[in-house]
Amino acid sequence: QVQLVESGGGLVQPGGSLRLSCVASGIRFRIYTMGWYRQAPGKQRELVARIVSLGTTNYGDFVKGRFTISRDNAKNTVYLQMNSLKPEDTAVYYCNGYFGVDYWGQGTQVTVSS
Question: What pLDDT sits at residue 32?
């Protein structure tokens, strides 16, 4: 059974930082493209960041150097370090694993507010 379990969300003030983690089980993690997506109320789900098996990354245009995605294949874990957070970053953040088939986590809420 495939499971992607996110953690690390919460409430943070503008300009603050959060680190999201996603632990995967039931997949050959090292061959999967892993990603983070987000969905704000009333908006479509959008790509935040993605990292392929060999480590190449790409980011949504709105990231502008504020976020960093990384992976630890030994721990079956993908991370998203988010700095300089803005209120518009408020959303549910979802972990995704892709290798011909998409798998999704349950999501973790990130709220940026003073």
Answer: 97
